[in-house]
Write a structure and sequence with these properties.
Radius of gyration: 13 Å
CATH architecture: Orthogonal Bundle
CATH class: Mainly Alpha
Number of domains: 1
Order of helices and strands: EEEEHHHE
Structural class: alpha+beta
CATH topology: Arc Repressor Mutant, subunit A
Shape: globular
Strand content: 15-25%
Helix content: 25-40%
Strand order of the largest sheet: 2-3-4
Number of strands: 5
Number of helices: 3
Amino acid sequence: MSAAAEPAVSRPRLARGSRLRWDEARQSWVVLAPERVILLDETAHEIVRRCDGTATIAEIVADLARSFEAEPGEVEGDVVQLIDDLTAKRILAP
């Protein structure tokens, strides 16, 4: 089931073995996962850092909308798409 199907109840978090870190050499935020490194742009970092297992996707969307003075509908698609993509790659756990 995708994050889009359950945005109100899904509480995404980094999967076991994945860590969010600042990479000094790359001057970028990355997710370190078994045998891979995922480079994050600013938008992806803002989404992933909120995936701590306590906030629902709806709460993440609302927080991002407040932080960037946007309408929730403007950010929801990007949030759900990134969470779905990273969940499929087993970087995030639902």
